[in-house]
Amino acid sequence: MENPAWLDDDEQRVWRGFLRVNAWIYDELERDLRERGGLSLIEYGILAHLSEAPERRMRMRALADSVIVSKSRLSHQIARLERDGLVRKQECADDRRGLWAVLTEEGARLLAAVAPGHAARVRALMFDRLGPRRTAALEDLLAVLEPAGDTPATDRRPSGVHKATVGND
After folding, report:
1. Are 89 and 82 in contact (CB under 8 A)?
2. How far apart are CA 72 and CA 84, in angstroms?
């Protein structure tokens, strides 16, 4: 086993700062969405991704990859959203084992109601603080950190900031 290459003081400070900011933003958005619409951040992301998909439906595996959760976690979230009438599962005609997650009208209405406030909260927590120059720099940094083979960070919306409500983002 190799000797561990410990982080130096600068790296440690940056790493811990990154974790703190990430947790803070996640917690703030989670709390806001719970108050605004009774949704978790992941559930909001599921609704947003479904709303942007053709026919407002996605295969469960693709949806799990889009919202960056495990298949088991997605199944749990879909069950809750289905119980609340926000999504429904649909069998896949060409793959008997496959399932579609489909956004319902009620889910689309809830998303439309909470998306503008969510986008405003994301903007207040992050983009208003960064400004255009730092936002561009952050975009460049995220592109460097993006795992090989993944979609560029600018094309993914893991927090589900619904593009139809945010304009030209």
Report:
1. yes
2. 19
